[in-house]
Specification:
By secondary structure, the chain is α+β, with helices and mostly antiparallel strands. The protein has 17 helices and 21 strands. Strand 15, helix 13 and strand 16 form a beta-alpha-beta unit. The longest helix has 24 residues. The two termini are 47 Å apart.
């Protein structure tokens, strides 16, 4: 019998074949459980929102979607999973290990990074997961552009031609400037390795990158610990163990049922009743009561996310540094931490958050001091204050509560604040256009735990410098040291930037919020990944298993 060409089937026929294989695998597992030959290792998790777009390189920016992709796809590299001093399982944001790569090496100059793929890997449908799939993935990344292509280029990989296929198990990346960013940028869902045999049949003239198929499907191209079994939109998502995942022994469960419960009080009630094993995004005001429930365990971790009051540095009166300093001296920091975050956070004292290299609080001078704030306003030419509008999302409880406290405090120095609430999508659109004047911004996090990467996005990038901050010295230092590998020089530059920015006060620095997750007391194995805060389901298990 002759060899069957790989492309003999249409995209739809291949998709149907993948579904058959998937259903047979799932049916076999269910049968074994029913016969008592296997244990039902299922976890039920309550999440606040549905997923949106499963194409890894064009994902919508929501946590639910990106968490799912983190669990169904694998990358060349990942964060090292370690046990910290407190006994917590953590993904170290500064240490990288191979994921599908068996080894990572570079030449002496740091201009070529070589990845050796683990031999014998396959995608969920049994197709080879090798260097050819990696090359296909990066050709697609650079071909369609977007955020992942930009981030890879930011790490000095200058396009698809800089990613070279050496052999079936070897791929090389040419780096035009040696730097420390590449691996951190690669350890995230945008770099999910895709199956060319599955994706290519859906690449058409009208849809050259198969976005239409990938935004709704993962079947046959999953490379991570789970496969997407079902997606009942608005109701439930079910993941099952991927039997072809390279590290399947590290997967502690067989099935994850994600129940979409938008109302936080309902998620809380389901957790208390034992109907779900884990509840995501429980409001901090409800956490204290859970901590007294013997059937529930709460885990909390300080994040590197930043929350701040943004002031548009190009719009009067916020174009005056003295006005921005005055507001920074009037903000009720402790009240927001204690009454809004309910103690689940720490003071943000620098544009570089605690937990990121070169952070210092040496230059943070702001505490609530109405007398000093009034003196600064008078010096700025506003002895009687002024009127302004403070814009917030209408779907963010922390923003609403913070706004009331900010409004009351600024009244003490003569600033009359009107609170403007906007729907979340409209607020975000205006923020991305950098058209807010005075606004509440919370929980920006830089996946790459590098200070200059972080400073670039929040103080220089056209997309994300929401306050339109500009300082030529700061910008020059960011440009000079983002790809620089001289640790001592980078530290000195980071210190200089922090001193300048804290003096110029483009933000009022509020907090770094805690990540809080609540689970039944018999659930164990939660791993905290500070780089992105996405929950990895594979380490989770019940004590009875």
């Amino acid at each position: 019998m002759g060899t069957v060409p790989a492309n003999i089937f249409t995209g739809r026929e291949r998709d149907d074949m993948h579904q058959v294989v998937r259903l047979l695998t799932i049916t076999l597992l269910a049968l074994l459980v029913g016969l008592g030959l296997a244990q039902d290792r299922t976890l039920i998790i309550a999440i606040p929102a549905d997923i949106q777009n499963l194409d890894p390189t064009l994902s919508s920016g929501d946590i639910s979607t990106q968490t799912i992709m983190t669990n169904v796809y694998a990358y060349l590299v990942d964060f090292a999973l370690e046990t910290d001093a407190a006994g917590n399982l953590t993904g170290n944001p500064d240490v990288f290990v191979g994921d599908i790569a068996e080894s990572i090496s570079s030449n002496d100059e740091g201009t070529v990074v070589t990845f050796k793929i683990r031999p014998g890997l396959t995608f969920s449908n049994g197709d080879p997961l090798d260097a050819n799939a990696v090359k296909f993935t990066y050709d697609r990344i650079f071909g369609q552009g977007g955020v992942t292509a930009f981030l890879t280029g930011m790490a000095a990989v200058d396009g698809a031609d800089a990613v070279r296929l050496v052999d079936d198990l070897t791929i090389e990346f040419d780096i035009s400037t040696p730097n420390t960013l590449l691996l951190g940028n690669m350890a995230q869902f945008g770099h999910s390795i895709l199956n060319p045999n599955v994706v290519q049949p859906f690449m058409t003239d009208e849809d050259p990158w198969a976005h239409e198929w990938l935004q709704n499907n993962t079947a046959g191209t999953e490379s991570g610990p789970y496969m997407l079994e079902t997606w009942d939109r608005g109701n439930q998502i079910v993941l099952v163990r991927n039997p072809n995942y390279w590290n399947t022994d590290a997967v502690q469960n067989d099935r994850i049922i994600l129940q979409i419960i938008p109302d936080a009080s309902n998620r809380l009630a389901q957790l208390r009743a034992g109907a779900v094993d884990i509840a995501i995004d429980i409001p901090t005001k409800d956490i204290a009561s859970l901590e007294n429930d013997p059937n529930v365990r709460v885990e909390r971790f300080t994040t590197r996310a930043v929350g701040y009051l943004g002031m548009n540095n190009t719009v009067p009166p916020f174009d005056n540094k003295l006005v921005r300093q005055a507001i920074s001296y009037a903000v009720p920091y402790d009240v927001i931490l204690n009454n809004v975050l309910n103690g689940f956070g720490i003071q943000l004292t620098s544009p570089i958050p605690q937990g990121t290299p070169y952070h210092t609080d040496e230059f943070f001078v702001y505490e609530q001091d109405f007398e000093k704030a009034q003196a600064l306003l008078a010096e700025a030419g506003f002895p009687n204050g002024f009127e302004t509008t403070f814009t917030i999302r209408n779907d963010n409880a922390e923003a609403k509560e913070s706004a009331v406290w900010v409004q009351a405090s600024l009244r003490n120095i003569g600033i009359d604040v009107t609170i403007e609430e906007m729907p979340g999508a409209a607020f975000t659109e205006r923020m991305q256009q950098r058209n807010h004047t005075f606004f509440y911004a919370n929980q920006w996090i830089s996946i790459n735990n590098d200070p200059f990467y972080h400073l670039f996005w929040l103080l220089k990038a056209d997309c994300c410098d929401y306050t339109r901050y500009q300082n030529d010295r700061v910008w020059a230092l960011i440009d000079e040291f983002t790809l620089n590998t001289d640790a001592a020089a980078r530290e000195a530059a980071a210190m200089e930037i922090q001193e300048i920015v804290l003096d110029e006060a483009p933000w009022a620095f509020l907090f770094q919020p805690d990540f809080v997750i609540a689970m039944r007391s018999d659930v164990e194995g939660f791993a905290w990944y500070s780089a992105d805060r996405y929950v990895r389901y594979n380490t989770l298990r019940k004590a009875s298993w």
